[in-house]
Fold this sequence. Notes:
Layout: E1 7-12, H1 20-28, E2 33-36, E3 45-49, E4 52-56, E5 68-71, E6 76-77, H2 79-91, E7 97-101, E8 105-106, H3 109-121, H4 134-143, H5 149-152, H6 155-176, H7 184-198, E9 202-203, H8 205-214, E10 219-222, H9 248-253, E11 262-268, E12 271-273, H10 286-294, E13 307-309, E14 311-312, H11 313-323, E15 327-331, E16 342-350, E17 353-354, H12 362-365, E18 368-375, H13 383-392, H14 399-412, E19 415-420, E20 428-430
Parallel strand pairs: 1-10, 1-11, 2-5, 2-10, 5-7, 6-8, 7-9, 11-15, 14-16, 15-19
Antiparallel strand pairs: 3-4, 12-13, 16-17, 16-18, 19-20
Helix pairs in contact: 3-4, 3-6, 6-7
This protein binds guanosine-5'-diphosphate (GDP), 6-O-phosphoryl inosine monophosphate (IMO) and magnesium ion (MG).
Amino acid sequence: MKNNKNTIAVIGLSFGDEGKGKITDYLAQKADLVVRFQGGNNAGHTVVHNNKKFKFHIMPSGAVLEKEVMIANGCVVDPKVLLNEMDNLRENNKEINLKLSSTAHVICPFHRILDGLEEESKTEYRVGTTKRGIGPTYADKASRYGLRIFDLTHPKILKKKLKNLYLIKKRIINCYDPDWDINFNDIYDEFKEYGEKLKPYVIDTAYYLNQAIDSGKKVIFEGAQGTLLGIDHGFYPFVTSSNSNALGICSGAGVSPKKIGTILGVIKAYTSRVGKGFVPTELKDEIGDKIRQQGNEYGTTTGRPRRVGWLDLFNIKYSVMLNGVDYIAIMLLDALEGIDPLNICIGYEMEGKALDTWPIHPEKVKKCTPIYKIFNGWKQRSREEWTEIANSGFESLPKEIKNYVNFIAEQLQTEIAMLSIGPEREDTIVLKDFF
Ligand code: GDP
Ligand code: IMO
Ligand code: MG
């Protein structure tokens, strides 16, 4: 089988919020189908369309363009959140063309409660989760008593499975709070109604997706979170509960690795992080404040101020390797305006020695000092000036940005395909047309 030119994956290479939503929306102009394959409404993907901001938590970003979208089996779905997002799209006169996997797992109120209770009980290993019940829902999936979309849409099965889950969860929650209870019939009635509303969209998405790919449809796999937040290959335990990398596509959507064509890795021009976990390049000073303000670095899902730092090419290099990245998109270059000089981390030093590769374990990373290369910054510009540059293309970029970008390509030994200098679709420079 030849490398499939019709399927691409948009994958965050850092700690999430790299701008996957914007890039997915841009590429979706050419796509037939956009697929979310992992995560849930812990994600917050922003798409700016005709001056209007859409924030997607579980719907794939292709929904703005009324494309066919898919929430595949590897996702965890809070039905209330999904229905709200669908209502919001309808209010904006968007037609919904959704395929929802019958085997995706369902987030219930107990999962959200336990997410909070477990986090409160933790010591220095608190993750700073989004408290959307993601971890507990994936844990139940692995424990084999999770509730699936199929169950939700079959009332008799729902009653039995929800009761099973309710009894297990009640005993656990009562260890924290002996008085806690929730009326089973109320939650059953609520979830039965969600099931009725979602039923028209529910299918075997793996079968549908494979048929779509085999018939030559153009498909985008939209990653959520970022590679370093991945459960198996990320910064454990300061991670989410799914494989938020290209490796997660096969199990999360039911496709063979042979069918995944191009992998696009998305990075910011600097580092951002919500939640806990040591960030070696973190800026806790006025430069950090300036980047946070210029990049509007406040969580799309929780509104929390994001921690920011210099670009870390050492951990990104690891992500490039892991995902087999073909091309890079560099986002938010405009947000570094007026900061001079700029630093890029090119390696870590531990106990006086430069490391060969990113050390994976927080306990080791904490002992590391970043090795920086210094770059000239670029001056502040008006929004109109940035858009004008985007319209004129790469050659009209200031030489300092060209230099910064070329260095990234060289360090990562990966071609840069897209640059972003503003939140709107038009603020994008395409260097390589790969889809
Ligand atoms: P995602 O989770 O990877 O989809 O990213 P988020 O949407 O959570 O965060 C990225 C933020 O940066 C959003 O507010 C976007 O609108 C914004 N954004 C994306 N690209 C650019 C850019 O090039 N410049 C600026 N200034 N903002 C951008
Ligand atoms: P998008 O798709 C940034 C972080 C949380 C926390 C950790 C675990 O918008 O890039 P969870 O609720 O998943 O159990 O939280 O992961 N996190 C994200 N950070 N962007 C996201 O999604 C994130 N989703 C989860 O802050 O540290
Ligand atoms: Mg986000």
